[in-house]
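Q: What structure does this chain adopt?
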Amino acid sequence: MLKRSLLKRVKRIAVVGLSANPDRPSHGVAKSLTRFGYELIPVNPGHDELLGAKSYPSLLEVPQASDLVDVFRAPEHVPEIVEQCIALNLPALWLQEGVVHEQAAARARDAGILVIMDRCIYKEYKRLLEA
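A:
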């Protein structure tokens, strides 16, 4: 299964739209990703640090490559994120539940990026790797 193999091989995840608010889904999911053993790279221009890791204003400013970009932004922001993923030659993009942008996903796929859309990475991890 595609999602299972992706989740098994990924080591470093950039979380775009990670919130400092513990009540927000991005915060809880990202915190769980660290417990699952992933290295987290927060991407949020409003914070210098999130969940104990340096936060970056955009993917373009992250000094190390990510294996996966997990997006917690509204769909209208996805095209810009896709362009950054293409510019950085990143291999995979995960759009969380409710984040759907068919044209941007198609652009990413055309550029060779694996795209998972409208799925919660936490729920998929629990279902596929802890079952």
